[in-house]
Amino acid sequence: MKATLISTALLFLPAAAFGQAGEVLPDGRQITPAAYEAPLRTTKVTSDAKFAILSSKIVTCAEEGAPVVNNGVILVSAGKIEAIGRQGKVEIPEGYEVIDVGDNWVTPGMIDLHSHVGGSLSVNDLNDTVFLTNPGLRASAAVTPGNSNLRRALAAGVTSILYIPGSGSNIGGQGILMKTGFETYESAEIRNPGSMKLAQAGNPERFAFGVARSFMNWHTRDTLVKGITYAQKWEDFAAGTGPKPEMNIQYEIFRWLKPHATQISAHTQQYQVVLQSLQRVVRDLDMPLFIDHGTIGAWKLGKLVKELDVAAQLGPRNVDVPSRGMMNWAQNVEAEGWRGTAAGYQQAGVMKIGFNTDAPVMPQEELSLQATIAVRYGFDDTSMQAMRGLTIIPATIAGIQHRTGSLEVGKEADILIVTGHPADQRSSIERVWLDGHDVYNAEDKREY
Fold first, then answer.
1. CA quadruple 137, 138, 141, 144: dihedral sign
2. Which secondary structure element, helix H or strand E, spans residue 373, and what is its range?
3. How many alpha carbons fall within 13 Å on the CB side of residue 264?
4. What does the pLDDT average to over 266-282?
5. Above pLDDT 70, what percent of the chain?
């Protein structure tokens, strides 16, 4: 047991903690920027089951190759997708269980990059307002795998979430990417740190006795600069060009952020506030950031979002309403009329658009509804962008697309059986596999 704990701890330290560039780490990796990639889980969660799923429609959501395979078959072995193709073209090996789902669709599991229900309470079991910036706080300490919110999410096809601190301070701490259907922390974890939570305007303005936006902008930037400087000292040490720095747990996350091995999930909305996120964090400091919420007229920044190659993870307010009070508060006087937020970004040329619930603001199981609302208010789904915004796009935003988010050979077998398009609210989830484990079957007990 002691050896297991030690090896696990080593995997979660950034590469530079082990010494100089070129040194081989205990897990076999060398100290390079690539060594900051997501750590491998040390607990065996892959299933020994071997099976083939037959369906009249498999929606792969793949970046390359066929996005849809009609009359298809998927082979799953050792928890991963072994093969995918047309029936008759892919041979089913002897001994594989054959599961024919008929006209039901087969799709990847859905991913939500803004959730607060990974812990034991209906909201975060964390105090992220001790300071105005808390980059060292870790949501992973509050994870409760298999809680009732996660079980309902699983029944609705949400297989992965980014569980993050709240938005009461400008930097609430570190999120964790986790799967919804496992009962142990080690099995549920995808990557830790999953992100660093940034929040601007709105909620943090109520910090202490009230904080004005100018100070929040200055203080947030000051924290980011200190963190980047800290990470650079460790990189210099790893390259043999500087002394070994003293560890500061508050800034350790920046050793992941600086090489873009994790991201800043930015709770940011309103035109002016999102503009600050883009200019101060992305353009000025070259920090990896994705827009979270991105509402209340922020879609008007779509051209700049595209120029900076920033992704937009939208929800749960996916419509700008013609409320004079809202427009005045947001200083968004040009946004008259009902506006679909996702449609606004899409029409500006932004391609990386995903959806979130901010659960429990909206129940975690209603993730697909956010895509439904987007389509209802003008989001073009002719290329299945709504489904992609629930699967491969959030996976790509979070940097885990090599593991999940689409049905492709070698990826983890996070698979849904759905009666139709997941964003069609008439559809229902019939079955879910995680890493090849059969974790939900509506025939046994329908939970959503």
1. positive
2. helix 367-376
3. 30
4. 92
5. 86
Lookup result for tokens 């747990």: 249
Q: Rounded CA gap, 405 and 419, in Å?
A: 19
Domain 108-407: CATH superfamily is Metal-dependent hydrolases (3.20.20.140)
Residues in the chain: 448
Rounded to whole angstroms, what are the CA distances from 359 to 127, 216, 241?
17, 25, 45
Dihedral of CA 230/235/241/245: which sign?
positive
Per-residue pLDDT reduced to its tens digit, 211-228: 888 888 899 999 999 999
What is the mean predicted confidence (pLDDT) over 318-322?
Answer: 82
φ/ψ (deg, to 5) at 121: -110, 170
CA atoms within 13 A on the CB side of 168: 13
| Interacting residues of 203 by C-beta distance below 8 A, sequence separation 6+ | 166, 167, 168, 267
Rounded CA separation 140/196 (Å): 12
Q: Chain-centre distance of CA 275, in angstroms? A: 22
CA angle at 371 for the pair 417 and 181, rounded to the nearest 5°: 45
Q: Phi and psi at residue 99, in whole multiples of 5°?
A: -120, 105
Tokens of 9: 């701890």
Given a contact cutoff of 8 angstroms between Cβ atoms, the answer to whether 259 and 229 are in contact is: no
